[in-house]
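Researcher: Here's the sequence for the chain we discussed earlier.
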Amino acid sequence: MMLEKIIIMLTHNDKTVPDAIEIFDENKDLPIQYWGFKDVGMEPAKMKILCDKMHEAGKTAFLEVVSYSEEECMRGAKLAVDCGFDYLLGTLYYDSVAAYIKEQLTGNYFVAENAVDILQHEMHHKEHWDYIRTKALTSSKSGAIVKQEIEADLREYVHNQLASDPAYIRETVSRNAANGFQRYASLNELIADALRQKDKGVAKDSVLLKLVEGVVYDDSNVR
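Model: Thanks. This is the structure I predict for it:
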């Protein structure tokens, strides 16, 4: 049985493999949430394409930096930010790199504020995809079709709110959720962030929250 919590690294001998994009495209439907690659072996433009593809498929993207000088580590950190990776791994600790990352995370970009929040955010992603897989297994439909169907009401509501207030997602949920919707037309980050807002008792739109819960939980399992 395939383990869902492993990270699939598209690498060999500490380098991203040349055909990483093609390999991901061929395997993106596997029930694996976490995917990543190294900061060497592929030009930055292609790294951005691959990271975007991971997000479009609803995956969590990891960049592992295998360089160790302060200059190289900062380059890796900026690459992670520019490409939109969810996690930066490897390298060594430098105050300058930590300060840069902290600066990028200010301004209420995420609902998550600490390690516990991040873990719960990722668990909400897993709940969402587990719910989709369960629905797909009990029907003759693909996961993509099921996802489209169960998110239809939520997507319509969000579109209607944006029509009257273009800043709706950013102000109601998070900049992270707004970025995911704007760049990929994806509700994945909105769903995870809205559920984390509920956990923290800071949800701002009860209608949105009810619709979000409807794409993650059956009525009997709403927490």
